[in-house]
Amino acid sequence: MGVRSRAQSPDDARTLERPSGPPSRRTALGELGAGLDAVRLLGAAPRLASAPRGDGHLVVDIPGWRAPELSGAPLRAYLRRLGYDARGWGFGTNTGDPRRDVERLSERLLRLVDAAGSPASLVGWSLGGVVAREVARRHPEAVRRVITYGTPVSGGAAHTTVARFFGPGSDDADRVTRRLDARSPIQVPLTVMFSRRDGIVSWQACIDHASPSAEHVEVFSTHLGMGVDPDVWSVVAGRLAQGRD
């Protein structure tokens, strides 16, 4: 019930199997129980309250595909209680145009970082994590670290249960990402959370085989429940407290 964390770090995530398609129908049906992940917050309250205090630096939270900015409000509220300047990305619902969103978030982030006088951390759920990764790739000097959960980093839309909604450009975007990973891998500290219970994005597609600084953490949440999973919150709080290595 959340009293103890179930998160764990695999010895070497890069040796895990590659994605071969979307999650199974059985796994996808498990998303119907996503609300139970929030229930675990009650049992986890003591350990979440004992997380390291924040240093006040800026944390930008980016929602997943078709998710409103409000979806990240509980996590942002928790991070603010810890002492971070946690904010939404500022563009409302993520409508699923990562190329546009990378451009506009880059512009906003540079303004915020210039005003703050120090780099920001980026936290992204699902497609929001894709945006966070690409912003960090473009502007490593402005990004302290990136934390993603349920984010596909390989295989594109072919390894999601909602592939038909992504449009014909999704495979092109994936090819561009692979070229960028080979030519210009992400250099900032990167924490990648994935779950074998993820019924929206194949967990294998979340494994980062290219970024030299990627750390992988396995959680046991549904995809839709990750934003209110106490283990996800605990990992986010712990990694934000580590600073920029």
Automatic annotation (TrEMBL):
Pfam families for this protein: Abhydrolase_1
Residue numbers spanned by region Disordered: 1-29
A single MF term (Gene Ontology): catalytic activity
Record domain AB hydrolase-1: where: 83-158
Gene3D superfamilies found in the cross-reference section: alpha/beta hydrolase (3.40.50.1820)
InterPro entries reported for this sequence: AB_hydrolase, AB_hydrolase_1, AB_hydrolase_fold
Superkingdom in the source lineage: Bacteria
PANTHER family xrefs: AB HYDROLASE-1 DOMAIN-CONTAINING PROTEIN, HYDROLASE, ALPHA/BETA FOLD FAMILY PROTEIN
Protein name as it appears in the record: AB hydrolase-1 domain-containing protein
Organism: Nocardioides oleivorans
